[in-house]
Amino acid sequence: MAKIKVKQIGSPIRRTKDQRATLIGLGLNKMHKVSELEDTPEVRGMIRKLPHMVEVVEG
């Protein structure tokens, strides 16, 4: 299965609980942390939910 790298570019401070939970689900919790994940529709949906907080580094 293909892999994508996701980097956190936004802070979770003053964000809603569901946005924080989505970040944790992506394996992110600190600024500029990079997580390598399987390229699935579920992961893509989580990335689309937080376009202001994450970016796809490699994919």
TrEMBL record:
Domain of life: Bacteria
InterPro entries for this protein: Ribo_uL30_ferredoxin-like_sf, Ribosomal_uL30_bac-type, Ribosomal_uL30_ferredoxin-like
Claim: Ribonucleoprotein is one of the keywords in the record: yes
Residue ranges of every copy of the Large ribosomal subunit protein uL30-like ferredoxin-like fold domain listed in the record: 4-54
CDD domains found in the cross-reference section: Ribosomal_L30
Gene Ontology cellular component annotations, sorted alphabetically: large ribosomal subunit
One Gene Ontology term from the biological process aspect of the record: translation
GO MF, any single term: structural constituent of ribosome
Keyword terms, alphabetized: Ribonucleoprotein, Ribosomal protein
Sequence similarity: Belongs to the universal ribosomal protein uL30 family.
NCBIfam families given in the database record: rpmD_bact
Subunit comment: Part of the 50S ribosomal subunit.
Descriptive protein name: Large ribosomal subunit protein uL30
Annotated source species: Sphingomonas suaedae
Lineage per the UniProt record: Bacteria, Pseudomonadati, Pseudomonadota, Alphaproteobacteria, Sphingomonadales
Gene, per the UniProt record: rpmD
